[in-house]
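INFO worker-7 received task bundle
INFO bundle size: 2
INFO processing item 0
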Amino acid sequence: MSTGAILTVLSNIPWGQVIDNAPKVAEGATRLWNSVGLRKKAAPAADADAVATAQPALAPTEALQARVQGLEAEVRRLSEQMQASSELIKALADQNAMLVQRAELNRRRLHQLAMASAAVAAALATGLLGLLLRG
């Protein structure tokens, strides 16, 4: 693909919309990154197995209850992370769909231009052949 064609394609991308959506995508990515980072930085005491083993003096039901609470907290964190991931994926999918639509529009325009160019070339060839046959 030539440089001119690349520049033509890039000039037809709706950069205003891409730039308008960029903060939303960046915010979603930041939230996702932070939620993953918080999980990795969590203290071992927050881990469900660590909670159960860190307090051996507890009665079995209390240890089980502490473990259930740890697991519930982990499920909440994972749910929040999944929600952030879903929002980010949707924003990226919307932006991708917009770019694909624009690329399809450019493809159609290029096809129309090629057909028009072929028609003009055929007309010129016919005219040139007519001039050559007369002379």
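INFO item 0 finished
INFO processing item 1
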Amino acid sequence: MSRTTTDGLVVVDKPAGFTSHDVVAVLRGIARTRRVGHAGTLDPMATGVLVLGLGRATRLLGHLALTEKEYEGTIRLGRTTVTDDAEGEVTASAGARGVERVAVDAGVARLTGDLMQVPAKVSAVKIDGKRAYRRVLAGEDVDIPARPVTVHSFAVRDAQELTTPDGVPVLDLDVTVVCSSGTYIRALARDLGAALGTGGHLTALRRTRVGPYGLDVAHTLDALRERLTVLPLGEAAAAAFPRWDVDDRQATLLGNGARITTPPLPAGPVAVFGPEDRFIALIESSGDRSRSLAVFT
């Protein structure tokens, strides 16, 4: 088996039943390093793309976590759960008999664009310094404030009428969602069901992309145990952020954390490369001056 502690990203196809922390723990054992982190959590029920960083690449993760994400999932209309997904206790079963596709499409349209979304109560959101799910499990009535999110696209690929084993008529929607960081797909399922008067929850979720990293570059944990595949730090930065190439003098200044004059640059983090394709830093432009976010020399 190949082992390396190279600084870089590892893109995992997370299996169901694993928390994001579980995956971090597995990768620490595979890479034989404690310096492992992840860019955005996935619920245990969910599968798909989870981006992890090794070594110095952990300093990229906070910025990668802010990038666009894409999901495929199944929303079940007609039943509500305490967690807004299939892992939680059922709290209501209104059924979804007679719900028409035109009403579904109208509801989906209202949940597309810039939204104020209330996260799921059983979530990792902190309320007064304590995770919301811990408060709910302790029996507290949690009030989570709405936060701004953007749903770039929300498409229903298929709809199927079913009857649950206990006789509740439900409507399963296979959906694809492209959204900003911080968007809860469980909350979209809950809110769509509430708008249609049926209740709703998520029964399946697979993250297919985080920023530029999709399932095509993701590896299962078993595959990583056989061969640890690491995307080098510079390649990872070039793939995820706009690029600015500088000369030796500028590279030295930026490597020391100095602020320098910049050309017009895109908003947000920019990856700076020096001669010989050396990754120097992540910066952002403040007017016509640089501001260092993280230095990697």
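INFO item 1 finished
INFO post-check item 1: The chain has a mean pLDDT of 91.
INFO post-check item 1: The radius of gyration is 22 Å.
INFO worker-7 idle
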